[in-house]
Amino acid sequence: MISDDSQALLQLQNINKSFPGVQALKDVTMTVLPGEIHGLLGENGAGKSTLMKILNGVYQADAGSIMWQGQAIDLNSPQAAQQSGISMIHQELALVGYLDAGKNIFLGREPHGMIPGTINWRKMYADARHILEELGLTIDVKRPVRFFSIAQRQMIEVAKALSFDARLIIMDEPTSSLTDREVETLFYQMRSLREQGVSIIFISHRLEEIFEICDRVTVLRDGQWVATSPIEELDRDILIKHMVGREVNQIYERRSNQASEHIVLEVQNLNRGARVKDISFQLRQGEILGIAGLVGAGRTEMLETIFGVHPAKSGTIAINGKPVSIRRPDQAIKQGIGFVTEDRKGQGLFPVMTVAANIAMTRLTELVRTVFVNWREVNSLAEDFIKRLDIRTPSPQQNVRNLSGGNQQKVVISRWLTLNPRVLILDEPTRGIDVGAKSEIYRLIQQLAADGVGIIMASSELPEILGVSDRVLVMHEGRFAGEFDPKQATQDDLMVAATGTYQEGCLK
Ligand SMILES: Nc1ncnc2c1ncn2[C@@H]1O[C@H](COP(=O)(O)OP(=O)(O)OP(=O)(O)O)[C@@H](O)[C@H]1O
Ligand SMILES: [Mg+2]
Predict the structure, then answer these.
(1) What pLDDT is recorded for position 4?
(2) Does residue 3 register a pLDDT over 60?
(3) Nearest 5°: CA angle at 204, between 134 and 354?
(4) Each residue of 436-472: pLDDT tens digit?
(5) pLDDT confidence of 37, banded at 50, 70, 90?
(6) What is the arithmetic mean of pLDDT over 263-287?
(7) Which contacts qualify for 130-134: CB closer than 8 Å, 24 or more apart?
(8) Cα–Cα distance between 410 and 340 in angstroms, integer?
(9) Ligand 2 centroid vs 224 CA: distance in angstroms?
(10) Quick one: average pLDDT of 138-161?
């Protein structure tokens, strides 16, 4: 801990916060120094976002105090926090979809025009363009943000936080949907902010990022402070132990390939525009097929085409040897295909409904007896999955939007599992998920495969692809550019294929 607390920019002291049924924070104390990048770590549901929302004035603490530049401060709204110089990038992106990028960045702070009461739009868009360019993003700032990819929206959110003259910027999982290159750009910005004396609180589940960028780290577990130390005094194992409260040696436990000979899904010559070109592959029952590729390679588009989100222009899909027509997602579901999307907030969750209803959603029609929904069955189904996936929620009746980000992901996965799919497609299944829960999800994927489900898993995390899959296909510009045996291939091999410089025809 620091010796002279008067130097601190921020001191959170004995912060407590309860929600109905959960004590999210218990006596948490944390100090941030001027010009440091302070990592905040903990498992899903540990209380990181809650603590940061208190600091940003979104929530009020039940007890405890906040000292800002040596003075007690009352942060009762996000505006109050902003005025004090605290700005926050939220984990669940908070942009307004139908407004353009420029308006989103300057929402409520549009520059005034010459005539009182008017807005200087030209200046606003020029400023927005400038901030985004500094972040390496050249986009049309007058386009509604809903047309941008998740990564682009994330960058717009970062630009928004940077546009305030903040002394402290809170970044709640800003990198979870960025490409490696975008992460590097963000880190570059973070370092230059640090040089200017700005402090940053950085939340991420990717430990490599923590080691690369942070000066000090604080770990929370179950709403309590566990440790604060300079990064030099930590290593991966210690950090994980602090977070999980036990040792996690084996994140990837390789099992033997249990794929049967039976081909459950066969895709032939699937085409749909520039990002899905001539895709052909077979998926065996019980096989885990990893799909790697750089962002923009077409992985998501290819999976969405198979699932009928965008119908294919040409090509065939066969399930268990029988050709099927999939032009819409409900037809895919009928064929026993499930799809856990990468954008859980946009496509996966019904935020104002309960955890139980979200899990049972696709089974609801079955669980309706005459005109009444059998809530007892809905609940017991939900309870079963809450246990199986270790979903941290006070009860199945909790509103799903109140769950932490990682736990929401588990709810989405549960929903698809209730359908007992033959083929389960997972797009970035562990994005935003903590190390402990990750290994649980890998075990679950392997269990499903052992039960005979064919799994297609697209991921940007190469260790995950290599650690979990039975076979890996790499995409480049809408095509498959290499096939690998993950027991022999290295991350470099996959990267070479992903950049399109791999020699065809040699299966490693
Ligand atoms: N508005 C709310 N109402 C009820 N419970 C809440 C609310 N917000 C958070 N919680 C609960 O408080 C606890 C801490 O959640 P929080 O979102 O702070 O976790 P986190 O550390 O940010 O996790 P993650 O890594 O998954 O984002 C969880 O049990 C969560 O379900
Ligand atoms: Mg969070």
Answers:
(1) 54
(2) no
(3) 115
(4) 778 888 888 998 999 999 999 999 888 899 999 999 9
(5) very high
(6) 95
(7) 131/105, 131/159, 131/162, 131/163, 132/101, 132/156, 132/159, 134/162, 134/189
(8) 10
(9) 15
(10) 85
Distance in Å, CA 314 to ligand 1 centroid: 45
Ligand 1 touching residue 409 (CB < 6 A): no
Architecture of the CATH domain 250-336+421-508? 3-Layer(aba) Sandwich (3.40)
Confidence of residue 20 (pLDDT cuts 50, 70, 90): confident
State which amino acid sits at residue 436.
G
Distance CA 194, CA 211 (A): 16
Burial of 80 (0-12, 13-18, 19+ CB in 10 A): middle
Q: What is the pLDDT of residue 294?
A: 81
Radius of gyration of the chain (CA): 24
C-alpha–C-alpha distance, residues 39 and 216, integer Å: 6
- The ligand with the least distance to the CA atom of 409 is 1
CA of 44, nearest ligand number:
1
Q: At what angle do helices 150-163 and 180-195 cross, to 10 degrees?
A: 10
* Contact in structure between 307 and 470 (CB atoms under 8 Å): no
List the structure tokens of 59: 């929530």
CA angle 226/229/231 to nearest 5° reads 125
Quote the ligand 1 centre to 375 CA distance (angstroms): 25
The verdict on the CB of residue 279 being under 6 Å from ligand 1 is no
What is the per-residue pLDDT for 495?
Answer: 87
Share of the chain above pLDDT 70, in %: 93
**pLDDT band, residue 345 (cuts 50/70/90):** low
Q: Where in the chain is the domain with CATH 3.40.50.300?
A: 5-244, 250-336+421-508
Instruction: Tell me, using a 6 A CB cutoff, whether residue 48 lines ligand 1.
Output: yes
Q: HSE (CB half, 13 Å, CA atoms) of 33? A: 20
**With 70 as the cut, is the pLDDT of residue 286 above it?**
yes
* Protein residue closest via CA to atom 10 of ligand 1: 402
Contacts of 112 (CB under 8 A, 6+ apart): 118, 119, 120
Fold of the domain built from segment(s) 5-244:
Rossmann fold (3.40.50)
Confidence of residue 508 (pLDDT cuts 50, 70, 90): very low
Strand partners, 322: 319
Q: Give the C-alpha separation, 392 to 384, whole Å.
A: 13
Give the distance from CA 44 to its chain's centroid: 11
**Average pLDDT taken over every residue of the chain:** 88
Tell which wins on pLDDT, 250 or 75. Answer: 75
d(CA 152, CA 164): 19
Distance CA 47, CA 506 (A): 48
> Which percentage of the chain shows pLDDT scores above 90?
52
Atom 22 of ligand 1, residue of closest alpha carbon? 49
